[in-house]
Amino acid sequence: MDSRLWRKVSAAKRLTVGLGLASTLNGMFLVGQAWTLARLVSAVYLHHAFWAGVASDAWALLALIVARAAILGASEKWALDHAAAVESHLRREFLQALTRHHPGALNSPESGELLHLAVQGIEDLEVFLARYFPQVIVTATVPAIVWLGLMVRDWVSGLLVLLTLPLIPVFMVLIGQQADKASKRQVAVLNRMSGHFLEVIHGLDTLKLFGQSRREATAVRRQSEEFRRTTMKTLRIAFLSGLVLELIASLSMAFVAVAIGLRLIHGLISFQSAFMVLVLVPEFYLPWRQLGAKFHDGLKGAQAASMLFDLMEGQPAPASGGQARLPAPGPWPLAWRDLTVRYAGRERPALSRVTLALGAGQHLAIVGPSGSGKSTLLQTLLGDLPYDGDILIGGVNLKDLDLTWWRSQMAWVTQRPYFFAGTIRENLQRVAPDASPDAMEWALREAGAWELVQRFPRGWDTPIGQEGYALSGGQRQRLALARAFLMNRPVVIFDEPSQNLDLATESALMEAMARLRQGRTTLTIAHRLATVAHADLVVVLDHGEVAQVGTPADLRRQPGLYRTLLDAYAPRGDEDALLQADPSV
Amino acid sequence: MRFFKLTQAYRSLVIAALILGVLTAAMNLGLQSTSSYLIAKAAQHPSTILLLWVPIVAVRFFATARAGLRYLDRYVGHDVTLRWIRDLKTALYQALEPLSTAELKAHHSGDLLTRLGSDLESLQNLLVGFAEPLAVAMLGLGLVFLVGLLLNPWLAGLLILMLLLAGLVMSGGNWHLAHLASRQLVTLRAQLTARVVELIHGRTEILALNVADTVHRDIDQVEAQLDAAKRRLSRVSGVFTGVTVLITWGGMWLLLAVGIRAVHTGHLRPLLFPVLAMIALASFELVGGLGPAFRDAGSLTEAGRRVSELLASAPHQAPGPQRTARATSVPAVQFDRVSLVMGTPSQKILHDVTWELPPRRHVALVGPNGAGKSTLVQLTAGLLLPTDGAVRIDGTATTQWDPEALRQHIAVVPQFPYVFHATLRQNLCLADPQATDAMLTQALQDAGLGSWLEQLSQGLDTPLGERGTSLSGGEMKRVALARALLKDAPVLVLDEPTEGLDPVSERAVLARLFSRARSRTVLWITHSLANLDLVDEMAVLDQGRLVDQGPVGRLRTHPLVQQLMRYQTLPS
Ligand SMILES: Nc1ncnc2c1ncn2[C@@H]1O[C@H](COP(=O)(O)OP(=O)(O)OP(=O)(O)O)[C@@H](O)[C@H]1O
Ligand SMILES: Nc1ncnc2c1ncn2[C@@H]1O[C@H](COP(=O)(O)OP(=O)(O)OP(=O)(O)O)[C@@H](O)[C@H]1O
Ligand SMILES: [Mg+2]
Questions:
Q1: Class of CATH domain B333-567
Q2: In a 3-state reduction of DSSP, which class is residue B547?
């Protein structure tokens, strides 16, 4: 088992100490219990004692029973509570790590796998800690104590039991190795299945469109069958180990029973000792038997734990962790110096040696063909992408900036907005928990979403569902815009704000954006050049390089990519289209 | 419940597992009683060991049989369970498959995943964790009574009474105290999964909106509730672990106390007094399993409810024979007074749409946001079925088509395409598993991705990342376009296919697309009026109603279109 668990999680340490104590006590009481019981039975059986003769033994026995009940109950609760505490702790850590690290850095297991690990895997670990691990402790303590008790009363039986002992660990190790390998495979299969399944659910429409969805049913069956087979394989090993342990226990019990029976005949042992041995011998083997039975449960959790720790530790430290904050309020000047961004598996850098400066409160427009690195340029501001070169914000390097603070200074509309299951209002409140209803209404109006919200039966209390599925594409875009309007931040970043919008909404948006720009720095990516005609600075990217920089008016006059993009409509002599492309012509 | 039916195929195995469980318990009882009898007998110093021969053999037999039977019992029990889970999982998928993405998301994918994952995991306990302890307790009781009769009928009666009482306390107490918390566990786990799905899928957005703290706080909240439920359960669990010990040993203690009297009054042979102790211990073990069984029964019923609810989701297709024969030529697509009601609270999204898409025509569909254009696409592909009226493909209503046969006629580029966490090749080959490299490259070139493909170091085998994260917005749309082009379908439906493209590439892609698709029907949804010269016809949809349709030239003067275009000329 992974020692990292004990090093990192204090609850795991407390769990171990508590259980060790409890099971030592339990072992001692167990011996005491067997002893008093044997005295009592022997007195009644051999000496025909009446109640008065055994009362003290009887009460002592009852007291021991009650004490054991209390110890076992308490240690069960102790184990469960601490396992749950470990679970919460680890889950929090893991989810924090997931947020912190760029998915590229996480060597990218599928979301479904991460999800499975975060929920079911940690749950399995809890089973490991609450069920298997206590058994390990019991196995480490109780048999030893019971054996000592045996030795004191009847050393012959003690030695007999000892003879079978070496068989047990040898066997356990053998089985352990086998099962470990098998269960690793099995956990991998399970993870893969669950990772795959999340994808299938989200991509079901696509699978249907290509006639592949029914085939998935066979795949599900095949995978479940494979899972059954691998599971049965590990179980077979685990059960077989159980069988052998059980046989060892049973046969040794039978052996001891027969041996003491024979010695009884010859008067070599008292009945009292014999009976005590009979009660104790099963207790000696019980922990091992139970360990064998729980072996399988334990394995899954142990695997999950080492996968979790591997994922959490295998990560490079997140890009930035400075402390600096800038004098409020913004906006601040922004500059990229010699910025190069490379993605794994791409020959060409997504951005190469981009140098660009933007004054405080200026408005930057980024244009260029698809895939030229526009979104990448903006993403670098999030402090989440590895890059070479420098990004300076108000003269401070991004790497020295307190990232949480910096992120709270920006309002974003990303290219693929994400919504949380809940109502429209909840989605707005998520970005601005203290926003007044008036402010929310204003934001919705500015984003052209107010009328449509009014049209919904429950207004802004209408649930939009997971990822906002109940909204149309354009409605979703408007909600994303409304969020950004509501945030009221000095730096505003729009990645294709007018995508999916109808033209009427788009031009209303242009006016709203003009109002929003006052006193803020804005960065806008646009394909429809109408969106950027008001920029102070336009940067034209092409294949990750800066092709042109200048004011829109300058660029319109120069030959170059900007002019080409603008002219895209012109050859057909379509005035409307040209106007649409750039209203300032 | 429907899901029990699935076990019919291996009912005999289920029964075998139960019988094996009971037999194992019986062997334990036998072992304990014969071994104590053996030493009690031996303590009488019999003249010859032969008198002990029977108990000695019995002890060995019971010992070996117990081990063997326990092995078989566990093996069969788990095997049956896993078979059942496998079949349940398949049945669940088959129940999910006809649902549309919207219906799936209405459940929340995290919740669905929980049903298919941890709910099934809970159900795994049904046989081994619940049914077997119950059977063992009930049948074991009879067995104990029989064995007890050999000792003394009164003591046997007392033992049974105590066992019954113990059984009731264990089952009733656990059920009463734990079932609520244990139920909650199931729903809370589903909630937790749903939130973690959002955390993982929405990661970039969470950072960009700087809402990581609140998202984590929400998760912590669910986690805290989960923790509270678990603590309630651990309390019950702790108490009943103690109670089990108390009942087992305390019960034996009581029985011994009574036994002492019985020995004295001559109702019980002293020889049997030690046996009584051991039988008492073994028989209380029989009811010991009831505690955990009933503690987890709440999870079991809740998980069972959730799973059967999903299994029972309404079948989508109309009953009766479905058409599987492909249309022989390019089929017409007709909307016949189509209305659609959707959502909670339900809303009428399409009103009485009557419209025809003649074969080989290229038609642009325009209209403001939320007009119902994308919904129309889903109706065409049979992903949604109309509430009223019919969508006919080649004269057959979509409800009468076999869904897979229907979709062979239609290739779609959805407004928000889905790219799988796989390589470029695997994503494209969804459309045509047999496609050669040349075909794939051609499709990518047609979609305007030729030069992009060339700079990928792994070419077609480049992994595209989770939901296409390694693609830019425009690239993702065009990968979806290439995939649709690769599918050799007579009707092509494009929902804003060039969103995210610059005007130069947009024009190039569209021009090539329309000229190559002369022999196909094309339905093209757009918000940009710029490239309308490329199509034959145009239709205008507004608030779920088809407002007008006809040649592009005429419709350009339609008031709604005029309105959209007039906005464009507003001075800035
Ligand atoms: N995570 C990633 N891994 C690998 N390559 C990536 C990744 N993200 C982006 N790329 C590649 O980097 C290039 C630039 O992507 P970016 O998203 O910045 O383009 P863009 O200019 O915003 O395009 P669009 O206008 O289509 O949105 C693209 O070719 C894309 O394939
Ligand atoms: N699953 C759903 N449940 C409830 N309402 C829905 C659902 N899907 C769509 N709607 C509603 O149906 C209407 C039409 O949506 P649709 O996506 O068809 O619009 P659209 O014309 O494609 O718009 P856009 O141009 O914005 O993409 C919208 O008002 C939307 O809110
Ligand atoms: Mg749409």
A1: alpha beta
A2: strand
The residue range of the domain holding A388 is: 330-409+525-572
Kindly state whether B193 is in contact with chain A, defined as any CB-CB distance less than 8 angstroms.
Answer: yes
CA–CA dist A292, A285 (Å, integer): 11
Which residue has 């408005």 as its token pair?
Answer: A363
Hey, where are the domains in chain B? 2-311, 333-567
pTM of the predicted protein model: 0.90
Does A463 sit within 8 Å of B344, measured CB to CB? yes
- Report the C-alpha gap between A309 and A323 in whole angstroms: 27
**Tokens for A446?**
């500015």
User: Which CATH homologous superfamily contains domain B2-311?
Assistant: ABC transporter type 1, transmembrane domain (1.20.1560.10)
Q: Give this complex's ipTM.
A: 0.89
User: A105 to each of A195, A315, A390, B185, how far by Cα in Å?
Assistant: 18, 6, 21, 33
Ligand 2 touching residue A321 (CB < 6 A): no
Query: Is any Cβ of chain A less than 8 angstroms from the Cβ of B121?
Result: yes
3-state secondary structure of A319: coil
Mean pLDDT, consecutive 10-residue segments, chain A of 585 residues? 73 87 92 90 83 87 93 92 90 88 62 87 88 88 91 86 78 71 77 83 91 86 86 80 79 80 83 85 84 75 84 65 78 92 85 92 91 92 88 90 90 92 92 92 92 89 89 92 91 90 84 87 84 86 92 86 74 46 44
Answer whether A474 contacts ligand 2 (Cβ < 6 A): yes
Distance CA B415, CA B538 (A): 19
Tally of domains in chain A: 2
Contacts of residue B108 in chain A, CB cutoff 8 Å? 421, 465-466
Is B569 part of the contact surface with chain A (CB cutoff 8 Å)?
Answer: yes
Domain shared by A339 and A204, yes or no: no
Closest among A14, A514, A253, A86 to B32, alpha carbons compared: A253
